[in-house]
Each structure stands twice: as C-alpha cells, then as structure tokens.
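Troubleshooting log. The previous run stalled partway through. Resubmitting the same two chains, unchanged.
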Amino acid sequence: NAGVTQTPKFRVLKTGQSMTLLCAQDMNHEYMYWYRQDPGMGLRLIHYSVGEGTTAKGEVPDGYNVSRLKKQNFLLGLESAAPSQTSVYFCASSILAGTTDTQYFGPGTRLTVL
Amino acid sequence: DQQVKQNSPSLSVQEGRISILNCDYTNSMFDYFLWYKKYPAEGPTFLISISSIKDKNEDGRFTVFLNKSAKHLSLHIVPSQPGDSAVYFCAATSNTNNDMRFGAGTRLTVKP
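Second attempt completed without errors. Output:
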C-alpha cells in the first residue's frame, strides 16, 4: 500500500514550457487535491476533485489545469510555465466528502521555473 | 489575504518540557480546525483536529484548544520529544465547502 505518490520529485523548466505532474493514490479515495507551498506561506489549494471525471477550482487556480480521468489519478498541468509557479506542489486525497476528513499527502514535487 | 496565521515562524523547547504552538484565524465561517505535522522532504501528516462545538481535544501527548471568541487555537505537546521536531501547520475549514486554509507553519525544534 503506497498511499499517495507523486511523479516527478524534482523538475526544472524554462519559462513557457509545459509539464504535467502526476498524483496517484491506491486507497480508493474519492477526493483528491493539489496544493502549492511557497516560503512564508501555508499550503494553498489549486484545484480539487470530488470524484472521477470531476474537477473544481481552489484558491489559486490560474495558470493550472487538472484532470481526473481515473479515480486513482489526479493530474496537474502547467501549459506555459512562469517563474511565479516555482514552488513545492503537494497532492492529497481523502476518503470522505469535504475537508473535515483527514487528508493524506504525497511527498511533494519541487518545481523550479527559470 | 491570509485567513489563518501562525505568527511564530519557529519555536525551540527542551526535551520533556511543554511546546505551545499558536494559530489565529479571521474567518468566522471556519468551524473545523486541524493540525498537520511535516518532516523535511515529506508531505504533511494529520496530527489532531477539533470541531467548533468543542473547546478542547486530546490525543495522547497532543492537545488542541479552541477559543472561538478570540478566533484562536493552540496545540500543546507534553512532554516534548526530539522526534517532535518538525514544521507544524494549522489549518481551518468549514463543513460547507471544500476549501481548507493553512497557516504558514511553525518550525518546532526540541532539544535533547
């Protein structure tokens, strides 16, 4: 049981490049989330999904797109990376509806945009 | 706007003593609060939570206190152990939405 895994662990992009971050969970959780963490700030919710085939915007969605084609996977895409998107990205999942349920986090992806 | 604030970026305590981590929030709609713990190079892990209908929740060495009128919560760790050294995030949410807001975190160092 691997829990929540994220691919890749590190990535360096040039401004304007695109990439996709993959999140996978093997706990059969309905809810999945993408956060970013920046120095001096807490985790901020980018997008989330309440089930397969659904996505919704969080607090800071601009510049990102997501897809949840399979229940176990949640993809975060950057179409045209900008230096402001340099951050550590965390994926999380939870069993039940809503954020009052415990969220299980992946180890994070450190992204640098030059 | 930061709706959840942890004003102490760091805290250092001696092993065996009490650690008190503080958190303030501004949004009166928040009715559920959580603490997450994070080690370097790992994702946050859930530690303890409290609903707004309570003012205290205890789990072993960890106790969270909630003061709704002051919009303040605190995490007490007694006794503190070196393995507790980590970054602690306070988070707040409500039952009516899926948005959880985190504080910036407090780095706790427990010295042997």
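Takeaways: The mean pLDDT of chain B is 94. The CA atoms of residues 35 and 48 of chain B lie 5 Å apart.
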